[in-house]
Design goal:
With 318 residues, the protein is mostly beta strands. The protein is built from 2 helices and 26 strands. It has helices at 232-238, 294-300, and strands at residues 33-42, 47-55, 60-69, 75-85, 90-97, 105-111, 117-126, 129-137, 143-152, 162-168, 173-179, 187-193, 200-201, 207-210, 213-214, 222-224, 227-231, 242-246, 251-256, 259-264, 269-272, 275-278, 284-286, 289-293, 304-308, 313-317.
């Protein structure tokens, strides 16, 4: 509280190995979340991935996925953890990876969106058998997610299929770990399905979120050399702007209150209330969809925009 002093006592799990400890006081952040520190600790029988994440001004479920790769960049093992983090608080995530002898590097991915998708899949060998690990991010509806795991022999012959079902809470992770029973298996494939058993859950590409909710579009966002473009109507309507389309000049005019934005297909010049701006990437047609640069549009309408490269997510905060 104001004018008071508080003593912080922090326990370090690996204190016997430390020769120096750095202490940092953290203030508020503008981002929805911020990775503070990340590291890995090798134990005899496992690798421990540790990451500290500071939350922004909105209490939310934060999911962290640790992806372990070998020296050739192949995904060996993937595991995830989640925590409900209060606003402006920090949380430590500790994730255990068993393939300690095969993992050369670990990448952490933070996920806070409300979409359902396959994050990653990896395999490693233990006791002469393939071990499959996968992580699925569930959306805003709790549901049963099923996995169909198909092993293959070296000649491509399909072996006995194994299955798994997991009831996954909203916006949480489904961690699958399965040892393939057939020792003749040399490779394995996995497919995930939602609770209907009909809709396959697949990996996603670039994602755009607005205050944590995924931007729903038929044409997915496209990353053009670091500049993400999204369908015109979807982003303007999600940001509360009205739009008019002039076919003759291929120009879109968006209005929100007294604010007016003009963009023309193929032009790297845009206008906000008549003032000229140069775009990093012009509005353009992709698969017959009018696509506009999401950062320019969002910031022009008063929002803050952040880019998370690890999760390939545009985070818009209004």
């Amino acid at each position: 509280m104001g004018g008071n002093t508080k003593v912080f006592q922090l326990t370090m799990d690996h204190g016997e190995e430390l020769t120096k400890v750095d202490i940092e006081a953290l203030g508020p952040i503008e981002e929805p979340y911020k990775v503070l520190k990340e590291t890995t600790v090798a134990h005899t029988d496992h690798l421990e991935g540790i990451i500290a994440v500071k939350n922004g001004e909105k209490s939310q479920i934060i999911n962290v996925v640790a992806t372990g790769t070998n020296a050739n960049g192949k995904v060996v093992e993937v595991r995830g953890a989640n925590n409900f983090v209060m606003d402006s608080r920090s949380s430590i995530f500790k994730i255990k990876l068993d393939a300690v002898n095969e993992i050369n590097d670990v990448k952490f991915t933070v996920l806070t969106d409300d979409q359902t998708y396959l994050v990653e899949t990896g395999t490693y060998i233990k006791d002469g058998k393939i071990v499959l690990t996968s992580v699925v991010k569930n959306g805003e509806k709790s549901q049963k997610i099923s996995a169909r795991v198909t092993p293959y022999a070296g000649n491509g012959k399909e072996l006995s299929i194994q299955t798994d079902t997991n009831f996954t809470m909203d916006n949480r992770l489904y961690n699958l770990k399965m040892q393939i029973k057939d020792t003749n298996a040399s490779s394995v494939a996995v497919q995930f399905y939602d609770e209907t058993g009909k809709q396959e859950i697949v990996k996603r590409g670039t994602l755009v979120t607005i205050d944590g909710k995924g931007l729903a579009t038929e044409q997915p966002p496209v990353n053009l050399a670091g500049n993400v473009v999204v369908p015109m109507r979807a982003i303007f309507e999600a940001m509360g702007a009205g739009i008019e389309w002039e076919q003759e000049t291929m120009t879109v005019t968006a209005t929100k209150g007294s604010k007016e934005i003009k963009l023309q297909i193929g032009s790297d010049t845009a206008y906000i209330d008549g003032q000229e701006y140069t775009l990093n990437v012009p509005a353009q047609l992709i698969n017959n969809n009018t696509m506009v640069p999401v950062r320019f549009v969002s910031e022009a309408l008063g929002a803050k925009v952040f880019w998370d490269n690890n999760s390939q997510t545009v985070l818009i905060v209004r």
